[in-house]
């Protein structure tokens, strides 16, 4: 299967490494508007280098395309690829506006091609086991969720032409760093979100960015579960994401890749401690990219629908768009149609 990749920035390395580990795919081309980045990626991982992704699509005719570009380009590039009969695997978020999300979902349906959205944290072993335990009711019914994302982003992170810009990134910590955790809230709740309240602020880099670096989001789901997410990029370091799943018999706690059960009275029991953990400066991202991308290509081979498509991946988009509306309205409740 011929594969191409658009956008050779920092996140593309995760995609290149995952593709390199697959036997059934061949990287035919890469594209980036900065020729030095495209050339470097092609030299390291293979394929031809392009500065124009549309030319790449026409010349190479790949079977699948990975999109690792700034947020505002996800949907236009995905639509171009789908129109040329390519499957699409896109970094999060699926879209940054309601109209773009609808366009992507329509294009997926009408093209007959598969779309995958990169919410790789669902593939972390602790998250998968937590989902299984919730579905089986091992510790009783899920009652509430509390999550915390405490990371650090300095002025240098925003030195490019899109991070920290509302028009291009679509928002700040919620749409970028915490969107994976927002996705896990609705994934664990296993029920449609019915209302959202949010408060946001820029506490750290007012003179550098025009988006939020701190957010508090409360989501209520149709089954009665209430979830609260606290997220910031104004912390002193990049701490492990913590998600507490309050169930009838205690708390299932995800702290980074480790899953524990904490009874009301007693010591925590570790349920999952991965034998292989991420390393390096981005270790807090986890190890899910390789697993998720492998699953995407398995689905392409078998014809089985990929689990996180434009509709499933779009659920997080609907949540953060409602959160932004609420914050702009001073925390007023926003209701979601399902």
Provide structural commentary.
It is a single chain. The protein is 32% helix and 25% strand. It contains ten helices and 15 strands. The longest helix is centred in the C-terminal third of the chain and has 15 residues, at 288-302. Residues 279-285 have low confidence and may be disordered. The protein folds into two domains: 2-120, 3-Layer(aba) Sandwich (Rossmann fold); 121-279 and 310-335, Dihydrodipicolinate Reductase, domain 2 (2-Layer Sandwich). With 338 residues, the protein is an alpha/beta fold.
Tags for this model:
9-stranded mixed β-sheet; alpha/beta; 32% helix; 25% strand; 15 strands; Rossmann fold; 6-stranded parallel β-sheet; 338 residues; Dihydrodipicolinate Reductase, domain 2; 2 domains
CATH class bucket of the largest domain: Alpha Beta
Count the helices. How many?
A: 10
Q: Taking strands numbered 1, 2, ... along the chain, how are they ordered across the largest sheet?
A: 14-13-12-11-7-10-9-8-15
Total number of strands:
15
Which series of helices and strands comes N to C?
Answer: EHEHEHEHEHEHEHHEEEEEEEHHE
Q: What is the distance, rounded to the nearest whole angstrom, between the alpha carbons of the first and last residues?
A: 37 Å
Whole-angstrom Rg: 20 Å
Biggest sheet descriptor: 9 strands, mixed
**CATH fold assignment of the largest domain:** Dihydrodipicolinate Reductase, domain 2
Query: Judging from the principal axes of the Cα atoms, what is the shape?
Result: globular
List the domain count as a whole number: 2
DSSP strand (E) fraction? 15-25%
**Helical content (DSSP H or I, runs of 4+):** 25-40%
CATH-defined architecture of the largest domain? 2-Layer Sandwich
Stretches with pLDDT under 50, minimum 5 residues: 279-285
Corresponding CATH superfamily of the largest domain: Dihydrodipicolinate Reductase, domain 2
Structural class: alpha/beta
- If you average the pLDDT, what whole number results? 95
